[in-house]
TrEMBL record:
Subcellular location: Cytoplasm
SMART domains (alphabetical): NDK
Gene for this chain: ndk
Protein name per the record: Nucleoside diphosphate kinase
Cofactor: Mg(2+)
Catalytic residues as annotated in Swiss-Prot or TrEMBL: 115
InterPro entries xrefs: NDK-like_dom, NDK-like_dom_sf, Nucleoside_diP_kinase
Subunit structure: Homotetramer.
Length: 148
């Protein structure tokens, strides 16, 4: 089953949005298989956002993502990578539709509440960057037979 890496960014944690965000993915039918509250080092931040190195917003992005605890998660389910991105909304909350996480809770592109992997390759890369295999729990969820 497909897996993705999602992370409530420091602004989302400080604003008390962790529960709300977890709840949206749970209600959708996805399965939480790993999660932790953690502080990101600048090394991990630079590695995670390596694709943006050299861009004008790179330094402020690294400063922001290391500025307070984040809530890192791995979610599993059919088409979870693309569906989670849809549920998050566009990168800039001003373009994100109401009903999406960024559309409902964000105002500026620098503090857009949540991160989500954008492809199979980035999901695999980001999951292994943030989680050990022992931290990911494979389990059967009774409700799954009412979803699939
Ligand atoms: P993320 O990686 O955080 O899930 O966001 P994303 O895929 O929707 O957007 P991406 O292009 O990967 O950009 C990563 C983060 O960099 C910040 N950003 N700032 N000032 C700007 O023009 C600008 N562009 C991007 C955003 O916080 C974005 O989430
Ligand atoms: Mg991205």
């Amino acid at each position: 089953m497909e897996k993705t890496f999602l992370m409530v960014k420091p602004d989302g944690v400080q604003r008390g949005l962790v529960g709300e965000i977890v709840s949206r993915f749970e209600k959708k039918g996805f399965k939480l298989i790993g999660s932790k509250l953690m502080t990101i080092s600048s090394e991990l931040a630079s590695e995670h956002y390596a694709e943006h190195e050299g861009k004008p917003f790179f330094n402020s992005l690294v400063t922001f993502i290391t500025s307070g605890p984040v809530f890192a998660m791995v979610w599993e389910g059919e088409n979870v990578i693309a569906t989670a991105r849809q549920m998050m909304g566009k990168t800039n909350p001003q373009d994100a539709l109401p009903g999406t996480i960024r559309g409902d809770y964000g105002l500026t592109v620098g503090k857009n509440v949540i991160h989500g992997s954008d492809s199979t390759e980035s999901a695999e890369r980001e999951i292994s960057l943030f989680f050990n295999t022992e931290e990911l729990i494979e389990y059967k969820k009774d409700g799954d037979s009412w979803i699939y």
